[in-house]
């Protein structure tokens, strides 16, 4: 069993105690800089196929400032939440805020945070600018329905 070190930048502690790392793939845009530890599993929200990684990945097609397919998102994040109990899971987009925040907020909903509180939860625990657009916020609210 491998889990994140508590000092790992970009961690969000979910209500269950599980840790998930959020980050930006473009180092110059990332608040947390390059990763020190590799994940075991990653969910990537990008407008095009991400480069090959040395770990298991799920790709959700999602252009910058937009939202991914709800059904694919639920499947990918349900798997990520299950894996986060015993392995290092990360979610990422280009800059590490909008789409990453959306995915982290949806993970929080799956872990028991009410949908109407999930964006604030992620902003308090991960990044104050997480979930950037009104339609991303709406996606999180609908995700909990």
UniProtKB/TrEMBL annotation:
GO MF term list: phosphatase activity
Species this chain originates from: Actinorhabdospora filicis
This protein's UniProt keywords: Hydrolase
Top-level division of the source organism's lineage: Bacteria
Hydrolase as UniProt keyword: yes
Pfam families for the chain: PTP-SAK
The protein, known as: Protein-tyrosine-phosphatase
Domain Swiss Army Knife protein DSP-PTPase phosphatase: 60-113
Keyword Hydrolase: yes
InterPro entries tied to this protein: Prot-tyrosine_phosphatase-like, PTP-SAK
Region (Disordered): 22-44
């Amino acid at each position: 069993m491998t889990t994140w070190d508590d000092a790992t930048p970009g961690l969000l502690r979910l209500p269950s105690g599980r840790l998930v790392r959020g980050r930006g793939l473009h180092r110059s845009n990332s608040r947390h800089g390059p990763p020190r530890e590799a994940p075991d599993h990653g969910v990537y929200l990008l407008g095009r196929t991400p480069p090959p990684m040395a770990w298991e990945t799920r790709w959700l097609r999602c252009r910058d400032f937009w939202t991914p397919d709800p059904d694919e998102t639920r499947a990918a994040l349900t798997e990520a939440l299950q894996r986060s109990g015993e392995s290092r899971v990360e979610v990422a987009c280009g800059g590490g805020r909008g789409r990453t925040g959306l995915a982290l907020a949806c993970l929080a909903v799956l872990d028991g945070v009410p949908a109407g509180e999930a964006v604030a939860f992620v902003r308090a625990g991960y990044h104050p600018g997480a979930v950037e657009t009104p339609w991303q916020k709406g996606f999180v609210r609908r995700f909990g329905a």
